[in-house]
Amino acid sequence: MMKYSFALLSGEADNFLKNLEELGVVDITRSEKPVDDASAKLSAEVDACAKAIRYLDSFEPSDKLDSGKFTFSPDGKISDPLTVFQEISPKQRQLKAEIAEAMDKLEDARVWGNFNPKAIEELGKLGLKMRFYKLPKKSYNPSWASEYALQEIADDGKHVWFVTVSDDPAYSFPAEEIPAPENDLATAEGILADKEGELIACEGVLNTLKDYIPKLRERGDNAMSKLQRYLADAGAGKAAENHITTFEGFAPAENDERLSKAFDAMDGVIYLKEVAVKEDNPPIKLKGNWFTRMFSVLTDMYGRPEYNEFDPTPYLSIFFLLFFAMCMGDAGYGLALIGIGLFLRRSKGMGDIAPLVITLGAGTFVIGIVMHTFFGYDISAVSWVPSWLKKCMVTGNIAGFDANMVLSIVIGIVHLSLAFILKAIYATKKNGFLESLGTWGWTLLIVGGVIVGGISLTGVLSSTVTKWIIIAIGIISAIGIFLLSDIHRNPLKNIAPGLWETYNTATGLLGDVLSYLRLYALGLAGGMLGKAFNDIAAMTVRDGGFGVGWIAFALIFLVGHALNLAMCCLGAFVHPLRLNFLEFFKNSGYEGKGRMYRPITNKQNL
């Protein structure tokens, strides 16, 4: 990164920031939150435009809407689509709630039919009171009609609706009275029709507003640009009695030549440039190829590296893909993920993650073949699978343990060994070799021990040679850990810190290695659950024949594996993240306290 310091007249600040927007690569140091009422207003406008665009993009009018556009204004044009949307959208939601309520009242009124409310009022004036009842049919006694002035209104076989009329103030009836209907059937139908008409009018306006999405997007872009300039200006330092404004910005070094020419051409702008250092806290722009860029979102979930820290994305991309595939452990689920990814490529708003889903699906397919599972079936025992493909499958036991479990532990050891190597390399770059002897001691002890132990298991080294190599590694490592961990103090004073670090490393490292058993456990659990669904589905067609049994088989198979796929994806996302964020980052010394590179630009996407 290159650091640029600018000084210019305060009156030229706005034009200067507009020029930076055109360049599109300079990150201006600024506050990321609204600093006052003006910036809060601009932020609210950007958010309102984004919400309106998202709603209108997905809005589909009802079938009752006429094909012609609803005219909201005399000339058929809407001058302020955002204001209109903010007025109509809440009204539409309110009308939907009122229509639901009106439909319930209509169903209540339908039983009572059409009646004259004024006639009921006239009866009341004459001292006659009409009461309304609804009873289960088994509780209704038809003989009541001979004892009371009773009129049965409706009978649906389950309930009976009826009314009584009485002038007796001490009137008593062996059933609980219900409230009188608010309206008769015709009135209730009219209220519902009016509400539906209002909703259609609202939907007409919203349907018209769909044509104004480009205008809303332009307004949102302009508001975002104003907000960026305002926040950049609000973060600028004021000097010389508010007549001079100073800015500080950062841009990738490869753009320096183009930027320097642009700054030289700007009138009234004085600038200085220098290579950014850690103390400047420059923003971080991750580099990488098409593969690693897919996984940069995972790095950002933890935190971007500091300016002099290594980028973990290349390592994260490889091991997250491997761990995800092992946790899924099913080649059939890999094909399903590839299909989902291809579908997402065509969907709005989800196209960005489609390549990642397809890549994870491809990795799951390959590892699923290695773990010999296809939609819960063990394909290592199937005759039609080619023999050359079976040779790629990990089956059987190693030293009495399942081969896939041993493979998970081996991969964990490799992952942690890489973490120690990275820690030593970047500690040397940061502090120098002599300042990193303690780190190199641990790296030599752990990684060297793993390498020598692995070679010894192959039988290449004899037990005697292996013993002396291990002793040599132990002595050299001990010197670095216990005597030279801090070369600026007496070597004997390094013994106590070395012992404490040994205790922490020994106890923590064992737990870290065992954490990788989750790769085997999750893959095994998903495979066993998939097999269970297969067995349940097979029970439905065990007697042979076609028909209902095969329909049940298809439903159980599809629904069961869909649920299992969803659960496996959840576990395969969370646990690989844990292994990378905790075990790998902790042992590699990665902190991830850098800030993201956000250049000021006029190219905004809502």
Set down the secondary structure blueprint:
Elements: E1 2-9, H1 13-23, E2 27-28, H2 37-58, H3 81-112, H4 117-125, E3 129-136, H5 144-147, E4 150-155, E5 159-166, H6 185-209, H7 213-234, E6 237-239, E7 244-251, H8 256-264, E8 269-275, H9 290-294, H10 296-302, H11 313-328, H12 331-344, H13 354-370, E9 373-374, E10 377-378, H14 387-390, E11 397-398, E12 401-402, H15 403-431, H16 437-457, H17 463-483, H18 495-515, H19 517-539, H20 548-588
Antiparallel strand pairs: 1-7, 1-8, 2-7, 3-5, 4-5, 6-7, 9-10, 11-12
Helix pairs in contact: 1-7, 2-7, 3-6, 11-13, 11-19, 11-20, 12-13, 15-16, 15-18, 15-19, 15-20, 16-17, 19-20
CA-to-CA gap between the ends? 28 Å
What amount of the residues lies in strands? 5-15%
Which ranges are low-confidence, i.e. pLDDT below 50, for 5 or more consecutive residues? 67-71
Indicate the percent of residues in helices: 55-70%
Using only C-alpha atoms, the radius of gyration works out to: 37 Å
Overall 3D geometry?
extended
- Give me the count of strands: 12
**Estimated structural class:** alpha+beta
Tally of individual helices:
20
Average pLDDT score: 86
Q: Summarize the main sheet.
A: 5 strands, antiparallel
Please, could you describe this protein's structure?
The strands form 4 sheets. Strands 1, 2, 6, 7 and 8 form a 5-stranded antiparallel beta sheet that branches. The radius of gyration is 37 Å and the shape is extended. The longest helix has 41 residues, at 548-588. Helix 11 crosses helix 13 (354-370), helix 11 packs antiparallel against helix 20 (548-588) and helix 15 runs parallel beside helix 20. The chain is an alpha+beta fold and 606 residues long. Among the domains are: 115-183, no CATH class; 310-588, no CATH class. The protein has 20 helices and 12 strands. The protein starts with a strand and ends in an 18-residue tail after the last helix.
